[in-house]
Write a structure and sequence with these properties.
about 280 residues; single chain
Length: about 280
Amino acid sequence: MVVTKMAAGVIAPFTIGFYRWVIAGAALTPFLLGPVWRARASILPHLGKLAILSMLGMAIFQSLAYLAAASTTATNMGFITALVPLLTIGVGAVVLRERPRAQALLGGLLSLGGISILVSHGDPASLLSTGVNRGDLMMFVAALGYALYGVLLRKWALPIPPWHSLYIQVLVVILLQLPPFLLTPISPITGENLPVLLYAAILPSLFAPYLWLRAVGLLGPARASIFINLTPVFTVVIAATLLAEPVAGYHLAGGAITLAGVMLAQWRGRERRVTTSSRG
């Protein structure tokens, strides 16, 4: 989130959104084009689902994050992203027909209270008159899309190796990002924005999606998303250090309440899984 915020001042959202995936695709092609082509018979039946996953996890999430960075702070973006575990429970209830527990509902209300403190700068009542910041709202939609991405990964459980799946999704997102790239102002690549672009193309575009695919496959979306709770912790520290973003009392209060709600929503589920496993 910190690098996304840094990009907001030096490169247009759809410029970095397109170039990062082109670079990622170029890096993967020498290693994966041949294996994916040879496995095309087993991949083609799932191409539509891979396209949906690419749209949710890469195109929508990243595009909204870059757009949001222009009107909100990296700290807010980190805390709103921390809602992904809670949103995963809600989306799972709809898509997977997993009935949410009372703790999940209570945790949801608690997290919403925390987010309201965060996005209103400590004055939730002001939301009735001023509404929610545009950037914060876009990050919430991005988090919702990423939660759906994780749930669909579990629901579909595509029989495709993670690197093959990632490569196909990268190729799809390049096509999805091409129209907005061509229809919006294109930023020139400079010495100032090149490091940000290369970072975005390598770590968040290649290794993070691969590790997320592996984590969801091994742990399931709900358990894997628990680790997203660490995002705001790292974001606050790095944003304060690199961007000199002030950390106000409402950040700490709203963030703590939000994370408490997320952990409350998940705590009983983890305990139940351990109990079930011990009985087996």
